[in-house]
Structure formats: structure tokens, C-alpha cells
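re: ur question from yesterday

yeah so i grabbed the chain u mentioned. its 379 aa long if i counted rite. heres the sequnce exactly as i have it in my notes:
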Amino acid sequence: MNSAAVSPSVALPWADDVQVLADVSQIAREQLAPAAYRIDHEGYYPIDIMAKLGQAGAFAGHLDQYGSRYGLAIESMHEISRHCGSTGFMTWCHDVCGLYMEQSGNPALLARLPDHAAGKTFGGTALSNPMKAFTGIEKMALKAKKVPGGYRVNGTLPWVSHIAPGQYCGVIAAVDREDGSRSHEIMFLLDLDERVTLRKCPEFSGMEGTSTWAVPLVDYFVHEDQMIADPVRPFIQRVRTAFILLQVGMASGVIQGSIDSAREVESSLGHVNQYLHDRPDELQAEFDDIKAQAAKLAETPFDGSKDFLLDVLDLRARGSEMALKASQSALLHQGARGYLMTSAPQRRIREAHFVAIVTPALKHLRWEMAKQMRAEVPA
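ran it thru and got these C-alpha cells back, copy pasting raw so excuse formatting
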């Protein structure tokens, strides 16, 4: 990714890409990696470590006020995901929440953005259901009704990550007319204050420390200060490639971590591992091509062309597919030691499967690419 320093006008201490990546990498190696099993298996929500990552600049690079350095944001997420996929995922949640706040143009949300970027406050994204609803895969879970001074919202979001009491997340709700027909949709920052009771989700096979909850809302009042977009569809059109592109950092970290694990045992098992497919050097060459493509796309994250969207969707799908392949290869290279519940290859198998199912899932990406391609072919 791009590692060039930006102009001195960018707010210190995050002006130097190289320094940010060095600091993020050190925190990920020394503090996050030792906690990865607890995060994945025992449900430890590492908000203390994320605060340190925020202080190092891990959550600021992509924001306009810090230079719109999407390459830096993806690389930071890569370094985090390389050592803990759960925290890499939460980094993405946090990054896109910051994206919503900044792109809203709402002065009240812009005033909250510096603390968000620095990891002093935390927020996630609740767009899994709406993104699928917009494509007809699901129905919109939240309904909003216009009232004086804002909206009232009802409904339940089933899976929302990187949230806790006192935090917040970006949310979309449908606004229906009196006859039940759809008028439009709104997007707002849902503050998880005393009006909201979070509900536990079923136990997952891994990534238990992502602080994922169901969020039921009963007549939740949305003030104008919380509004991100009204209507929301033009906003989604503008930010969707940046939203998807940032996820590549999550996939790339899991891939590189898997390659690292395969290399770890070369001195002791290389004589027999040489007969396996998907050897570390082969995977690294394939992965370097993905990284190069990501760096190129990160230069223009808001390109609104159909070709750019297809390139981003394809890259995100390739990242999912390679994460699955690389994590399986790492476990096969490590053998029995990789099958231990506490091993990094065992954990990355679960992380890679999550990369492939988190919205937009691999099947969703392929569905969207097919739709975009059909639109170019005359009937």
C-alpha cells in the first residue's frame, strides 16, 4: 500500500504513514497477538487494546481530515488482522462508522469525529441487514416514522458488532407511507444510551470477542443531530465502494497471517510439506498481486464508475477466496499442532470463514457482480 508521508498540514501525530504502521504493528504483535485466543474463544472484547491502536492512528487514515489515505487504513487493518481477525473486523466496523459520520456533513456528528478517530469513543456499523435489503435478499428490519423534530424508530437488528452500552453505530431504517408503501430510507447514528437494551446473540463458533448483539428498538427517537442521511440511497451510492474496499484489509491480514504460520514450520516440516499444494511462496506471490490491486484501487475510493465497482467487488471476492485457501493451507502445513484449539491456524480457519460470510458475503458479491454484468448486456 501507499507508505508516503502526506503534507505537514495533516494533524500530528498521524502525518507519517511509516510511523503509524510501525506503531500499529508493534501494538498488534506485542499486545493483540497474545490476547487473540481470549478474543476469539473466550469473548474478551479488547477495547483497551483498540484504544491504544486509535492513539497510534489506526482508525484515522481514511478520513478526509487526515488525508483520505485509504492505503494507510487498509494497511493498518491488515497489520491488526494479521494477528487477530476479530479485532481486524472491529477495526473495519469502527472505520466505516467514522466514514458515515464524516460523509454525513452533519456538524453535530463532525464534532464527535475526532474522539472517534483517536479511539476515545467507539462505534460500529449495523448495515448488514440494510445492505441485503437493498438487493432484495432480506426485508428491512427497522421502520421509521416522521415526527416533530426527527423520527421514531421500531424494530430489531439481529447482529450488530463492536457495540456496547454507551457506544453507537450507523443504522438505516425504512420510512413507509400511510398506505404501507415505501417512501424512502434514513440513516442515523444510533446512540446506545439508557433507551436501548442490548440482547445476547447465540454463541458463535469463534470471534466471540467482537461484542455482537441484537438491538431491539421501541419508539426510539432520532434527533436531527444524529442524522447521517435523509434520504439514504444517494449516500450509499457514494460510499459503497469505500465501504467494501476497506474490508480488503481484514481479508489480507488473515491471508498474511496464514502464510506466516505455514512458514513457521518450514525448518522442521519442510521436507514433507514440500509435497503439499499451496506452498507459502506460491501463496505469497498470489497475495502480492491482491495487495498491488488494493493499493491501486485505494487511490480513488469514491470512483463512481461501474468498472470501478466491479473491480472492488472482484477484489473483495478474491480476498475471501484466498483467505479460505491460505488458512486451510496453514493448518495442513502445521499438522497436528495447527489442529490444537489454541493454535493460530485453527483460529484463522474460523476467521477466514467469517471473511467469506460477513456482509457482503462471497455469494452476495458474486450475485452483485452478475447483476452489474447483466445490466451491460442488451436484452
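noticed a couple things. The two ends are 41 Å apart (CA to CA). also Residues 88 and 250 are 5 Å apart (CA to CA).
anyway ttyl
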